[in-house]
């Protein structure tokens, strides 16, 4: 879709959030930095909105410790993954994207800026009739949700699916996708304050984890898939409410000290998996433009929608917005208009 509000920046500099190291305080600062240059096959996107992920918080504070090995803040000082905006320039060899196209996508850092360079193949046309904020919200969280649901048992209509952490960024998409793509019977696990939100997204049942552990309530029949976005419930307890041919897909692994975390949890699940008919899946999202197109299509058809909280203040609001993710209390996706 072509934009009518194309505002290319004629200068060579841009504003961006720059990460100086790991930690909560003083590690993010909005600075003036060079605009990214374009390589073959890349496009320059003027960022209109970004969404904030729990992963941004992990990358900022450097927890768990393994994150520090994976995130190179010197090589890639600008954080942020999810963006939506307008293409303002195309590099050599780009054929399928034009200046003026409205796109969204995710990148391996660099989104918390006025401009981001992205491979042509990594950007996806914005769904029609959707705001930049809603498109930015869709990227990592929507993709994680659909991939996690697919990673579990093959679902048939009416199968029981449990989403633990249903009110957060990933959960709010997982509830909708489990209903609309898999026609599942969805139990959402969240606190009572968010029960109305998850019901509005399509949950059939809600378990308030502040009243009872979801594993204290054995469904009939048992769950075919549990997508666990929190990761603090023991695997054995999850297995007790899971069908014999069911799947536990663990997207999060709780929070623990220790150099080996979460590798110890991942290896533990893989080892146990060898001795049971149940599928125990330590899950890691794989960025994929095809999935983004699939999610954009569902959005355009009105089958899913982002549940967003818009944060005012542009790039300057991002340091606090990311710090707030550490508390784990987000409802839906937090988005910032840039
Ligand atoms: N493996 C991967 O590839 C991958 C990809 C994306 C995300 N993740 C991880 O997946 C997790 C979820 O991501 P997200 O973006 O959805 O996080 P989020 O937006 O921060 O999720 C926050 C939500 O979790 C709920 N919650 C907290 N404790 C809960 C509990 N014990 N039971 C049920 N709900 C609880 C909160 O509700 P209340 O405030 O009402 O408690 C809040 O609505 C994060 O740990 C993230 O790092 C992993």
Automatic annotation (TrEMBL):
InterPro entries: ADH-like_N, Chloroplast_QOR, ER, GroES-like_sf, NAD(P)-bd_dom_sf. Pfam families: ADH_N, ADH_zinc_N_2. Residues 23-336 form the Enoyl reductase (ER) domain. It comes from the Eukaryota. One of its GO terms (molecular function) is oxidoreductase activity. This is Enoyl reductase (ER) domain-containing protein.
């Amino acid at each position: 879709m072509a934009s009518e509000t194309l505002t290319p920046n004629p200068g060579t500099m841009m504003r961006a959030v720059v990460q100086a190291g790991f930690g909560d305080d003083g590690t993010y600062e909005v600075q003036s930095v060079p605009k990214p240059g374009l390589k073959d096959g890349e496009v320059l996107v003027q960022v209109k909105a970004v969404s904030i992920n729990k992963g941004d918080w992990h990358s900022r504070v450097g927890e768990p410790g393994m994150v520090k090995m994976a995130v190179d803040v010197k090589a890639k000082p600008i954080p942020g993954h999810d963006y939506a905006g307008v293409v303002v320039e195309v590099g050599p060899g780009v054929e399928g994207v034009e200046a003026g196209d409205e796109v969204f996508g995710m990148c391996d850092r660099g989104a918390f800026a006025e401009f981001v360079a992205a491979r042509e193949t990594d950007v996806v046309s914005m769904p029609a009739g959707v705001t930049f904020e809603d498109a930015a919200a869709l990227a990592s969280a929507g993709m994680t949700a659909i991939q996690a649901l697919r990673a579990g048992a093959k679902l048939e209509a009416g199968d029981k699916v449990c989403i633990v952490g249903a009110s957060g960024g990933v959960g709010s998409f997982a509830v909708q996708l489990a209903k609309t793509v898999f026609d599942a019977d969805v139990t959402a696990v969240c606190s009572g304050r968010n029960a109305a939100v998850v019901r509005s997204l399509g949950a059939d049942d809600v378990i308030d984890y502040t009243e009872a552990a979801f594993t204290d309530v054995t469904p009939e029949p048992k769950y075919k898939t549990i997508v666990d976005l929190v990761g603090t419930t023991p695997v054995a307890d999850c297995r007790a409410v899971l069908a014999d041919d069911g799947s536990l897909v663990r997207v999060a692994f709780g929070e623990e000290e220790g150099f080996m975390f979460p590798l110890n949890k991942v290896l533990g699940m893989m080892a146990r998996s060898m001795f049971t008919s149940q599928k125990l899946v330590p899950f890691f999202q794989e960025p994929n433009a095809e999935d983004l197109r699939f999610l954009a299509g569902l959005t355009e058809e009105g089958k899913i929608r982002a549940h967003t909280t818009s944060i005012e203040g542009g790039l300057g609001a991002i340091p606090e917005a990311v710090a707030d993710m550490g508390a784990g209390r987000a409802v839906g996706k937090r988005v910032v208009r840039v």
